[in-house]
Amino acid sequence: MWSWLLHRVTGLAVLLFLLVHIVDIGLLSFGPDVYNEGIALFSTGIVRVISLGLIASVLYHAFNGVRIILIDFWPRGARYQGIMFAVVMIITILCFLPMAYFVVAPIFQPGTSAVALPM
Amino acid sequence: MKVTLRIKRFDPDKDAKPYWAEYTVEASPVDRLLDALNTIKWTIDGTLTFRRSCAHGVCGSDAMRINGRNRLACKVLIRDVGEKVTVEPMLGFPVIKDLVVDMDPFFRKYESVKPYLITYDNEPGTERLQSPEERARYDEGTKCILCGACTGSCPSIWGNPDWVGPAAIVNAHRFIFDSRDQGTAERLAILGQRNGVWRCRTIFNCSDACPRGIPVTDLIEQVKRAIVYGDRNID
After folding, report:
1. Rounded to whole angstroms, how far apart are CA atoms B101 and B64?
2. pLDDT of amino acid A106
3. Which UniProt keywords apply (chain A) (predicted)?
4. CB A78 to CB B201 under 8 A?
5. What pLDDT does residue B233 have?
6. Which of B204, B218, B221 minimises the CB distance to A1?
7. Does the annotation place A61 within a ligand binding site?
8. Which of A11, A115, B14, B50 is the most exposed place for a label (fewest CB within 10 A)?
9. Is B226 exposed, middle or buried (0-12, 13-18, 19+ CB in 10 A)?
10. With a threshold of 0.90, does the pTM exceed it?
């Protein structure tokens, strides 16, 4: 049940980001200055921490999606669903850790971020 | 040992809405939960209402929600649930009284998948023979006792009471994969509809709930593949 519930919640979280993403990409139509100012928000501390949730959501949703495809199309998939869920969690965490490091590290080292904060 | 049972009670003649009642009874760790319910009914409060018949996990009467999971009260031991037990009627069914739920919609869904042998050839005159391998193909589905534990544990049923539900699909599977049966196409047509197998989101609550150990989700997935590939021999 938790695999399904997490899949639903992370799916909604990714959808929510998609809406935000449409807005931030849409800023381009107001010219490069507006876009740069808007996109700079993504290098602020708070948004970097929120981004962790997005990364975890995308990773889990992607790997669990493969698990669901295997359950549906691999004749023995349903029998191994528990093991596959454990594998999904392990791969999700293994992929999350290095990505999280690169996203969060600039908060503690001001000035090293790829995108400087125009204040 | 002393066991405290927290039971969700509801009498439609007296109560506006369900309420929780607590009973403490003496029970042995190897007693079944049904024994504790009987002790309450026979010595404390005779109005406590629940179904039970064989009390040996065969008739499928006493499926209920025990500590949040659908189980048969006659198969659950006191030592497995601890000193504090929560007992509720199964979710997804209309409650008639206390732990008794209305199984009529459940059996209508069961009937809708034609859970009986369908043949169109002339009767053979002898037995309809089958190899051990052909018999093994649908063995899991024959274990179903129609207790409703799987259907009552399914979030898809909680969200949409019109869904046919896991128990009916298990019993359709039992005939779909029977080499003697000739009704596969019509059953797959019924189960391919909007409220057929596709509302199964592979949540696996049903497989966990089944007191007979039937891999319910696995059987549902086999039916899905039979519909997709149009062939019951695909797996």
Report:
1. 9
2. 83
3. Heme, Iron, Membrane, Metal-binding, Transmembrane, Transmembrane helix
4. no
5. 67
6. B204
7. yes
8. B14
9. buried
10. no
Domain extent for A102? 2-108
Q: Please give the angle made by the CA atoms of B117, B152 and A76, to the nearest 5 degrees.
A: 65
Place of tokens 């975890």: A56
Residues of B contacting chain A (CB within 8 angstroms): 155, 201-205, 207-208, 215, 217-218, 221-222, 224-225, 234-235
> In chain B, where does the domain assigned CATH 1.10.1060.10 lie?
104-229
The DSSP code sequence of B42-63 is III-TT-----SSSSSSS---E
Residue B27's contacts (CB-CB under 8 Å, 6 or more residues apart) are: B1, B2, B3, B35, B36, B39, B78
Nearest chain B Cα to A2, which residue? Answer: B203
CATH class of this structure's domain B104-229: mainly alpha
What is the ipTM, given to two decimal places? 0.84
Delimiting residues of CATH 3.10.20.30 domain(s) in chain B: 2-101
Return d(Cα B12, Cα A65) in angstroms, integer: 44
Whole-angstrom distance, CA of residue A41 vs CA of residue A48: 9
